[in-house]
Amino acid sequence: MASSPTDAAIALTRLGLGARPGEIERVAADPRGWATAQIRPQGAPQPSGQFADTAQRVAQYVDYQSDAGQVRRDRRTAPEAVSAPASMTGDRVPTAPASDPDPDPGAVARREARQAARRDITQDTAQEFLARAQLGATTDDGFAERWALFWANAVTVSAVKFASGAFVGQYEREAIRPHVFGRFEDLVLAAEQHPAMLLYLDQARSVGPDSMAGARRNAGLNENLAREMMELHTVGADGGYTQADVTELARALTGWSIPTARDNRQTARPRRARTMAAQIEPGPDGFVFRANVHEPGPRTVMGKTYPASGLAQGQAILRDLARHPATAKRLSRRLAAHFVADDPPPALVARLEEAWTRSGGDLAQVARALVEAPETWTPQPAKIKTPYEFVVSTHRAVGTRPERIQPLRQALLDMGQPPFAAPSPEGWPDAAADWAGPDALVKRLNWSRTAADAAQAADPNAVATSALGARLSDRTRLAVARAESRPEALTLLFMSPEFQRR
In the 3-class helix/strand/coil scheme, how is 402-443 assigned residue by residue? Predict the structure, then answer.
């Protein structure tokens, strides 16, 4: 298919995260080929850096939770202990009473160690976000990166909870990125079984009422993960399921959990080790299936009955939900709405749904259908960049990358999209109405001025041409050329309609 002069700019700004200097010229010969070459079996590129993997983070988290238990015991035994106000991390730190001039040194040391462990995990997660933003600002594989970010948001976890936030970097690196060009059922299964998701949606607390553990203690079913699996991750609210289906799925998922300090204590005792081995079935890193928590019996979900089979029961239901026609329809529309328009062309949605259905949910085939669809290449931009996309595309335009987490975090916080912290299991919103309000535009203008002041680009006119190519309007070109200073010219460019849209 022949390319128009605007196709390279469309590829880099709509399918990718913005053009870097000279990139439009490099892509111009074959914009579609540039995108399809990034559809690789190994998935999307990974951020650079030495970060804990999921197994290592589980060990850190288990230690942190164990320390938390000891701190609570110290608090109960301390005479007339009082609590200090909540810290920035959300902890309420016990302090010794004024009448006790000599608090227990061991308790103080344990409390300080727990606080340090929490800070270390939080700082490590922040550095993971910085590495992800640096990848976005510098990668040659902009389509693969945007595709990965879409799926991380479609099956989201959030750092609004410390527990899930401790694992969000590992979640993106290990559960999402390797699977984004594989089968959807493999991606969603990896996502649902990851500690980040199990903690975010409280699945690790769910206990089958008629299970061995449920009969011994006052614990109950938690339906959060089951509900979001159906409503947000697969078939959708219009997919034909009922509340009874949610409850049945929640029963099937009981036992899906993560390791705990108690596991280590119990398996360390020889007499209990054999019992624990029978009760816990390890899965992927950081995942365990607890047979003694699993609700026994067959389950019926959306008209299909699944025999009692422990861990395999929930997995079988999830795979069927991933393959359901309603899932193909819903996620095809969401893809089209993300990449092309808030109200996507029906023909594009149909193309993506057909590719999804024909391939059995092969996301590589769906990605190729998106790249090949004529609706993808309409010249008129219809999407507003999110704050993260805006920041990353600005760095790409001037050939830089964010170097420190604090200014990056503050900028995104000011613009309403704090790092790794989607406001709900629905993920970040994706429509213009959510990002283009008057206050939001003022925040973007303020950040644009800061970015323009810091930019070392010598010629704003050249930056405008290399960032937008044929999408650069005469009005914006003239405004940049007539600006009284380099920072003013760059600010006008960053706030121009064609730079804010993609």
Answer: CCCHHHHHHHHHHCCCCCCCCCCCCCCCCCHHHHCCHHHHHH
Which structure tokens are listed for 85? Answer: 């106000």
194 to 146, 168, 283, 468: CA distances (angstroms): 22, 10, 10, 39
Is the CB of residue 398 less than 8 Å from the CB of residue 429?
A: no
The token duo for 250 is 């929640």
> What string of DSSP letters covers 314-359?
HHHHHHHHHHSHHHHHHHHHHHHHHHT-SS--HHHHHHHHHHHHHH
Is the model's pLDDT at 315 over the cut of 60? yes
Joined tokens for residue 333: 């529309």
Find how far residue 392's CA is from the centre of its chain.
16
Q: Are strands 82-86 and 92-95 parallel, antiparallel or unpaired?
A: antiparallel
**Residues 380, 385, 489, 401, CA torsion sign:** negative
Those residues whose C-beta lies under 8 Å from the C-beta of residue 20, and which sit 6 or more positions away, are 138, 396, 397, 399, 466
Cβ neighbours of residue 191 under 8 Å, at least 6 residues apart? Answer: 155, 171, 175, 176, 197, 233
Is the pTM higher than 0.85? yes
Model confidence pLDDT, tens digit, residues 274-291: 444 457 776 677 999 999
